[in-house]
What we know:
The chain is α+β, with helices and mostly antiparallel strands.
Amino acid sequence: MNETLVLKKYANRRLYDTEKSLYVTLQEVASIIRQGRHVKVLDAKTKEDVTAFILTQVVLEEARKKNNLLPVPLLHLIIQFGDNMLGEFFENYLQQIIQSYIAQKAVFDEQFKQWISSGMNLPDLARKSMGDLGGFKTLFDLNPFLKFRYPDAQTDDGPGRKKK
């Protein structure tokens, strides 16, 4: 199977899958992309690459279903500065930002799964970590908000402060 699927766009706005020899909808194009495939869309008559236009339609169709893909202030900026500054930003940086976010989210999710699967009690782990802080521990002892996290801590001269 070829990594990039070539679709033809006809004047009647229909998309033709050249691999399976059948017409596909925008929703089916989205499903193909979610499966990890790339698509290239060519105008059937002019052979012009219209991939960006069709993928934008896919995104807008998804947004129409959920009615909130992007925040309204961002949409205003895109319309206001779309041809100039934001076009350059989208072209140069947005893809990198999204890919970085996805990678960081995957790392965080994996770490969280490891914590859950290890059966560790996170409050106990925090207390154990606090014990290893040495000289910095007194800074945390002075924090009045920690009394709510460790209500069983013995106090001498006020809430959240341990006996000396």
